[in-house]
Amino acid sequence: MPGFLGSYAHALDSKGRVSLPAPFRRGREGETFVLIQTQPEALSLYPPEAWADVQEKLRDISQRQPKMRNRVLGVTANATEVVPDKQGRILIPEKMRKSITLDAEAMVVGAINHIEIWDPKRFEKITSQTDDDFDQHIESVFA
Q: Rounded to 5 degrees, what are φ and ψ at 34?
């Protein structure tokens, strides 16, 4: 399955649902995704195969570093499973919407192996920043 690419602005409806872009849904009808907040400014939406990798890493951290178990538990306790409806919408729980200040619109962004959901203004701000280290590394990717 190809990775998730591109960014799409979508309105949130009155119930807090956002439509996943058609390219992100294609071939994934009926699949359960995991919606989780992995960073302060965005939500992450993992398809089953990517979530399996994350879950294995979290399990490994818990087993190898028992002191981290409570942190891992805190991360997974705030995760939820979502299945897009027939219109391709997922419900973003109110607590998650508030935590990243989602209001009327969301930026749905392909992040290769998962999808990220951002407040559009925050997304624009964070992606417009320049970083000389990144510029040097990205040249090697596309060389």
A: -105, 125
- By DSSP bridging, strand 115-118 and strand 7-11 are unpaired
Which of the 8 DSSP states describes residue 66?
G
The C-alpha atoms of residue 12 and residue 71 are separated, in whole angstroms, by 30
Distance CA 102, CA 93 (A): 11
Read off the pTM: 0.89
Domain assignments of the chain as residue spans, ordered by start: 7-129
Q: What is the pLDDT along the chain (143 residues), one digit of tens a residue?
A: 568 999 999 999 999 999 999 999 988 989 999 999 989 999 999 999 999 999 999 999 999 999 999 999 998 999 999 999 999 999 999 999 999 999 999 999 999 999 999 999 999 999 888 777 777 777 777 76
> Please, what CATH class does the domain formed by 7-129 belong to?
alpha beta
Are the C-beta atoms of residues 34 and 97 closer than 8 Å to each other?
Answer: no
- 7: nearest Cα among 111, 86, 85: 111
